[in-house]
Amino acid sequence: MVAAAGLRVVRCGGSPLHGARAVFSADARLLLCTAGDFVKVYSAATEELVRLLRGHSGLVTGVGLNPHNCLQLYSCSLDGSIKLWDFTDGILIKTFTVGYKLLALYALDSCEDSVFVIIPKRGERDTFQLVSVKLTKTAGQDVEAKEFSVVLEGVDASPKCTAFGREGEYVASVKNFHLQVYFFKRKQLNRFSLRATNAKGGNNLFTCVACHPKEDCIATGHADGKIRLWRNFYHNKEYVFSTMHWHHDRVMDLSFSIEGTSLLSGGVEAVLVQWHNGSDCKKDFLPRLGSAIEYISVSSDGTLYCTLHTDNRITIINSNLRFSKSIQGLIRARDVKTGLVVDPRTKALVLNGEAGHLQFYCLQSDKQLYSLDIVQQEYIQQAGLNQTDLVKVAFSAQGKWLATVEEREEEPDLELHLKLWFFDEETQSFKLNTQISMPHDDHITAMCFRDMDELEDDSLILVTAGKDCLFKVWVILEDTDPEAQQSLSWSCDFVGSYHNYQATNCCFSEDGSLLAVSFEETVTVWDSSTWDLKCTFCHPPGKIRDICFGRLTCSKYLIGATDHGFLCCWNLLSCALEWSAHLNVVILQPDPLSEHIAAVSWLSKESSLFVFKPNEPRPICIQRNLCQEKIQCAAFVPRDVPETVGSEKYVWLRRSQLYLLTDAQELMTFSTKSPEERLTVSSKQLAVEESLPVTPFSLLLGKHRHQQSQGDTDLTKVVRNHHEQDSPAVKELLHTPAHVLPSASFLCPIFINSLLISKEKKSAEEVADEVEMESEEAEEDSDEEKDVTEMEQENTKSMDLLGEITCKLSKAEEKELRKVRKMDYSWISAF
Amino acid sequence: MASYKPVVVPAVPRLGEKVTQDTLYWQGYKTPVQIKEFGAVNKIDFSPVPPYNYAVTASSRVHIYGRYSQEPIKTFSRFKDAAYCATYRDDGQLLVAGSEEGSIRLFDISGKAPLRQFDGHTKAVHVVGFLADKYRIFSGGDDYSSNLWDIPSATEIVSYTEHTDYVRCGCASKLNGDVFITGSYDHTVKVFDARAKSSVMTIEHGHPVESVLLFPSGGLLVSAGGRYVKVWDVLKGGQLLVSLKNHHKTVTCLCLNSSGQRLLSGSLDRHVKIYSTTSYKVVHSFNYATSILSLALSPEDETIVVGMTNGVLNVKHRKPEESKEKSQKKRQPAYRTYVKGRNYMPKQEDFFVSKPGKCVLRKYDKLLKGFQSSKALDAVLEPHIRLYTPEVTVAVMQELNRRGTLRSALAGRDEKQISLLLTFVTRRVIEPRFTPILVTVADMITDIYQPVLGQSAVVDKQFLRLQEAIGREIDYQEELLEVLGMMDALFATLTKKKATYLEENKSNGLTKTLDQDTCN
């Protein structure tokens, strides 16, 4: 089976989360949001991914809870179908095929069996209509839903531009400079228009709309940052609106709170604004949310807000405007200039994240490990500003040092900073060690550390290549002055150049003895101990795009890719060209653990992957048509456990895995496993989703309880009764706030004792049973059924009256008393 | 969630001297007191007993100064011609001085007339001193001889005529009462033992020896002559330990500090250099107005006295130790809050919950946080920031520029504020670390206020001054470039040989690859 399996390209992260507003489940414990072709179900309390609803074959564009059954969810997609899900169990209930591209979905309370969707108008481009689709109740999984009626013509495609009013009485939709309101009962359509620009030059373009849940009031957002509240819009002429202005740029989304007392708005400023009572004067802010707010949604009980951001982050906010949680996968950066880098310490992918930050993305859990602030400047969210960008990142072999380059280009100046970070074992984070301003006079094109595993410390060398026609070598200097604050710092050791050509790439050989620097058309090879120029290679007329050394047995080869579509392999021993191939290579990526080199080519709108060993020009593996988009960068990530790969063709996948990042910032990888296999693995990971607040402790306790309940099945119910009795003790332990609890060392014996009692009890019980009630086993069971119910009250009563009741006890009561006497109450004294 | 990040003020590594413990120690002197003597001060000697008076030999007099007196408290002036090298005895009771006419006079500190006079040198005696046994005097004269005198009988004990030139310096061992050392213009330093008939060791200094000094341990000998200060290991038979060349004119005097850890040398190049005696590196240096002839340090380094060729005596007193009571006077918190929880001992199982420290924002940061650019710029143009920490002002300007609000922050200012801004720019624009941003600021100011030019004389004058400053800087840079060009040419001629070698190598590689290509 393994041999038969082909190589498949698998998307493994980075799909855009912001297709539509997220939806909270009715109890606000789950958060449902669209993610590419899937719907993701997150726990609002733990940020855990609980379910992944898969089934759509196109981008999911809208989700909405079924108003008549709050455990069901409608989702619509560009593939023209509406699906009904049971999202708690992840089951697809029904599929309604509409046959049009669906761009937004609205499910209303008031409409019995229909939902509203936005579809493109037949025959016209860029014209959309709001239609109501009747969802027939016929049995069967796949149902055709062709019965629909047009509600509004000429609506905007964005789901933010249409909103349904109080109890579904009217629908408001905005497009360009028009607001149209349609009243369902009266079948009346009112249109309101604004002038394109107002007196002060603001742009009146409508961007979003929201309707008050209790009153007749419509809020609209505009491109100049104004929010207008419309009232009395039943009449075409006598309408009124009030204006509120805080945002300095386009209002991205608006949302009323459940009672309608406050209005939430968000824009590119990354500030969530809460307006109280529809007035301009009273407002609260939650600033610095990271990136522009795309959608705002409110849970149905009003306790939580959720904002979706343009960088794929989901933020959950308490209703008192306190930041609560953030769910972040692969953060979408404006531009991934750093490429994909693997952190040797955590094996996490490192790339541009939030503006000025470096994100460490864990591939296994699809989560961001942490985000390192490199630029350390206040980020100003404003269009047209030249922001500081992180352009280069390099790790030393052990992950002890991190080098970053940031630049800010403002004509005619260029601000460049080279920063070197040292991994602090104590705080387990990177600490800034040296900052070098303007290391080069022009852009830095490449940077690399000399990777030497055994000689980590003082022989560490960093090389930067710049467009100022130089490459510079940086070394660690040790300050011998004992009064100095830090003993290590970096300084420039050598500056090299070659005929005043721009340095474009640099790379060290595996053993660190040679440095290859490419200068436009020429590759120069330098001795890394004396910094002498050893030899040069070129393959005219193409400029060198990428270079790398071979590894392990192929370490005598140097591979280069040129602009004119040639892949060349030079032999370093003979200083001659070994072979060359005609291939337009955009990325050249050597595997650090094997001889294999992956080359990604881009030819006429499709990317292909070639894997080869430098010692033979014939590629081992060719994978054509990876994806439609251009591949931006690639990285080999070492596997923890070598995978068993059957086919000789895929032997390069054994030690490490290749990840590719496309222009759309989707992360892709290769897998030889069939989709089913992968699914089982992922669903296994989801096995622990049942109880929502999953903490390691509750997992442990849960396991314990589980075992107990299994063990208890053969015990008498009295024993179980006592379990329930001492569970408050455990409960108390778990629910008392941590700051009033006594120390753990004090609690531990009590906790363990409370767990042990049942065990003791059981043995005592069994002994008693065996001795005295052997003959009565048959009636025992029925007796006990009765006793169980009385036990709760009797337990305390019998304690108090123990001395008085001496005679006239029934047999059953006597037995009961005996049990009580044997019981261990020592745990009570503890509390 | 992220909080506001304050403006980062870039730290520029301080060029030049680093502030070390030594710098702090040697800078701890008050401003010098200048006393005018009658002629070049050729010797200063501190009395070894309190109150540490010092004898200054200049011209034909020996003046005794008290510690803080600016007038001599006593004068010995019984010399017909110049007096030389007035030196105290170990007990501070007697003073001996040589003279131009060749006689040596011994004075009692309390008396006026000389107690003894030793005649025997035929020429001027430039160096005299007591031996450690207190009863003998050594001397060196321009008649090339070094003599030993007995004080009680005022007779010559022995005369060594081994030097072949003027004997101009000398010193006696503190441990051995028989050993003394003389240095001469014949480039040698000779060690004499009174018990031996001739010198016991000769050290070749290589230059006319101006000063010699023996360490208190007696193991190391320092000689100064020419531009060199050399340290010799006497116990190893006069092996050269280290040669210091830190002056660019003749070194004239040497001196050790009271702890023996630092060596001071004065020179005609107007500098006093202080060396560490462990590493023999210069740890500090003083600068004086004219060439230095003599130098002395009082016990405990309380006073540095330097004598110059123009007869000026420069006296520096140590600043009194700063009392630490001042800092303690700070208002202490109320008794209640002070005592609260003071005697609480954390138990073993307690764990600390650290409270995040409250970040106090500077005024300009608060304003920047509220996007009030104009006010933030006003805040950093306050005199104390503008004058003492210009880097903060420039950092805020840079931040405003990054935010794109610098132009609006600069605009709309009145005459006084513009002239203030322009003064700041004019003054700081030539500092390399500020130049990039201040050029932008200057550009913007000229742009904004061009229409109102000519309305205010003050502002116009400031603009002219700015233009002048920039013009000067441009000229300067051009000159520097010229120098750089010249140096490049020089270096190019120096490395010519190596370059051709590389050229060959390169062409070889190139042709090889080309060959290969054609084969393919």
From TrEMBL, chain A:
<dbReference type="GO" id="GO:0006364">
    <property type="term" value="P:rRNA processing"/>
</dbReference>
<feature type="repeat" description="WD">
    <location>
        <begin position="53"/>
        <end position="95"/>
    </location>
</feature>
<dbReference type="InterPro" id="IPR019775">
    <property type="entry name" value="WD40_repeat_CS"/>
</dbReference>
<keyword id="KW-0690">Ribosome biogenesis</keyword>
<dbReference type="InterPro" id="IPR036322">
    <property type="entry name" value="WD40_repeat_dom_sf"/>
</dbReference>
<dbReference type="Pfam" id="PF23869">
    <property type="entry name" value="Beta-prop_WDR75_1st"/>
</dbReference>
<protein>
    <submittedName>
        <fullName>WD repeat-containing protein 75</fullName>
    </submittedName>
</protein>
<keyword id="KW-0698">rRNA processing</keyword>
<dbReference type="GO" id="GO:2000234">
    <property type="term" value="P:positive regulation of rRNA processing"/>
</dbReference>
<dbReference type="InterPro" id="IPR015943">
    <property type="entry name" value="WD40/YVTN_repeat-like_dom_sf"/>
</dbReference>
<feature type="region of interest" description="Disordered">
    <location>
        <begin position="766"/>
        <end position="800"/>
    </location>
</feature>
<dbReference type="InterPro" id="IPR001680">
    <property type="entry name" value="WD40_rpt"/>
</dbReference>
<dbReference type="InterPro" id="IPR053826">
    <property type="entry name" value="WDR75"/>
</dbReference>
<keyword id="KW-0804">Transcription</keyword>
<keyword id="KW-0539">Nucleus</keyword>
<keyword id="KW-0853">WD repeat</keyword>
<dbReference type="InterPro" id="IPR011047">
    <property type="entry name" value="Quinoprotein_ADH-like_sf"/>
</dbReference>
<keyword id="KW-0677">Repeat</keyword>
<dbReference type="GO" id="GO:0045943">
    <property type="term" value="P:positive regulation of transcription by RNA polymerase I"/>
</dbReference>
<dbReference type="GO" id="GO:0003723">
    <property type="term" value="F:RNA binding"/>
</dbReference>
<dbReference type="Pfam" id="PF23769">
    <property type="entry name" value="Beta-prop_WDR75_2nd"/>
</dbReference>
<dbReference type="GO" id="GO:0032040">
    <property type="term" value="C:small-subunit processome"/>
</dbReference>
From TrEMBL, chain B:
<dbReference type="Pfam" id="PF00400">
    <property type="entry name" value="WD40"/>
</dbReference>
<keyword id="KW-0539">Nucleus</keyword>
<keyword id="KW-0698">rRNA processing</keyword>
<dbReference type="GO" id="GO:0006364">
    <property type="term" value="P:rRNA processing"/>
</dbReference>
<keyword id="KW-0677">Repeat</keyword>
<dbReference type="InterPro" id="IPR019775">
    <property type="entry name" value="WD40_repeat_CS"/>
</dbReference>
<dbReference type="InterPro" id="IPR015943">
    <property type="entry name" value="WD40/YVTN_repeat-like_dom_sf"/>
</dbReference>
<feature type="domain" description="U3 small nucleolar RNA-associated protein 15 C-terminal">
    <location>
        <begin position="343"/>
        <end position="490"/>
    </location>
</feature>
<feature type="repeat" description="WD">
    <location>
        <begin position="118"/>
        <end position="159"/>
    </location>
</feature>
<protein>
    <recommendedName>
        <fullName>U3 small nucleolar RNA-associated protein 15 homolog</fullName>
    </recommendedName>
</protein>
<dbReference type="Pfam" id="PF09384">
    <property type="entry name" value="UTP15_C"/>
</dbReference>
<dbReference type="InterPro" id="IPR036322">
    <property type="entry name" value="WD40_repeat_dom_sf"/>
</dbReference>
<dbReference type="GO" id="GO:0005730">
    <property type="term" value="C:nucleolus"/>
</dbReference>
<comment type="function">
    <text>Ribosome biogenesis factor. Involved in nucleolar processing of pre-18S ribosomal RNA. Required for optimal pre-ribosomal RNA transcription by RNA polymerase I. Part of the small subunit (SSU) processome, first precursor of the small eukaryotic ribosomal subunit. During the assembly of the SSU processome in the nucleolus, many ribosome biogenesis factors, an RNA chaperone and ribosomal proteins associate with the nascent pre-rRNA and work in concert to generate RNA folding, modifications, rearrangements and cleavage as well as targeted degradation of pre-ribosomal RNA by the RNA exosome.</text>
</comment>
<dbReference type="InterPro" id="IPR018983">
    <property type="entry name" value="U3_snoRNA-assocProt_15_C"/>
</dbReference>
<feature type="repeat" description="WD">
    <location>
        <begin position="244"/>
        <end position="285"/>
    </location>
</feature>
<dbReference type="GO" id="GO:0045943">
    <property type="term" value="P:positive regulation of transcription by RNA polymerase I"/>
</dbReference>
<dbReference type="InterPro" id="IPR001680">
    <property type="entry name" value="WD40_rpt"/>
</dbReference>
<keyword id="KW-0853">WD repeat</keyword>
